Amino acid sequence: MSGSGRKTFVAGEVLLAQELNDYLMDQSVMNFATEAARGSAIPTPTEGMLALTLDTDEIDYYNGSAWVPALPIGAWTTWTPVLGGTGWSLGTTGSEATGKYVQIGKTVHFTARLTFGTVGATFSAVNRPSITLPVTATAASGNIDFVTSIAYYDSSATLRYLGSCDFQTSAMSLFCWNAAGTYLVGAAVINTAPFTWAASDEIHVSGTYEAA
To answer: Quick one: pLDDT at residue 49?
Structure first.
């Protein structure tokens, strides 16, 4: 961690410069105009350091590898979900992948929408697609702590189909329900399920899960 913890100084004790750095400077909430200014002033941060960036009014802490929000309650962060899976592509010209999320402690809430384009979109007949997660998920508890809501939108028929997913640490693999609303156990989303996919069709997903 940053600094040296807590020390009780006694009357008459000499305060060394290193002690001032260890017990005060490295354990205070330091103020910087921007993230760039912070990086310039602290080229080698240590885990546990706190810093306020004045341009964003955000307090971050250094977790040992990166500066992350210390108080992540507030505005959601935008992110770009990535469609994965062999044989799947959003294509171009009208394709879109947008999302946002907020992390509070180990809990991550997220939402995303992916739209297939009119050029280059591909749909696999044998492999199911996946969507990346904004924050790495824990692999514990067999996914029982993860809650999602998924809808597949057939733009040509203006119909929506419900779905489910299998969480991995960095992405979720997609499953589907049939037209009658009955869950197809183990049925992956493929080029003809839950409908025949085409340009302008969409995947909507939102959920809550535990971060690693």
So the answer is: 84
Give the whole-angstrom CA distance, residue 105 versus residue 102: 10
- The predicted-structure confidence for 43-98, as pLDDT tens digits, reads as follows 998 888 888 888 877 888 888 888 988 876 666 889 999 999 999 999 999 999 99
- Please tell us whether the domain made up of 77-210 is placed in CATH 2.60.90: yes
For the beta carbon of residue 17, count every other beta carbon within 10 angstroms: 8
At 174, the amino acid letter reads: L
Token pair 């907020």 is found at 102
Low-confidence ranges of the chain (pLDDT < 50): 1-2, 141, 180-185
Q: How far is residue 136's CA from residue 153's CA, in Å, rounded to a whole number? A: 27
Delimit the CATH 2.60.90 region(s) of the chain.
77-210
b/e for 170-191, b at 16 or more Cβ within 10 A?
Answer: ebbbbbbbeeeeeeeeebbbbb
